[in-house]
Amino acid sequence: MKNGIERRRDPRIPLALPVVLMTPQGAIKGKTASISVGGLALILFIEKPEIGDNFEITIKTPEDHEIPVTCEKVWSGRIIANETVYYGIGVQFTKISPSDSEIISEMVEEYYLV
Question: Distances from the Cα of 101 to the Cαs of 5, 26, 37, 88, in angstroms?
Answer without folding.
Answer: 25, 26, 6, 22
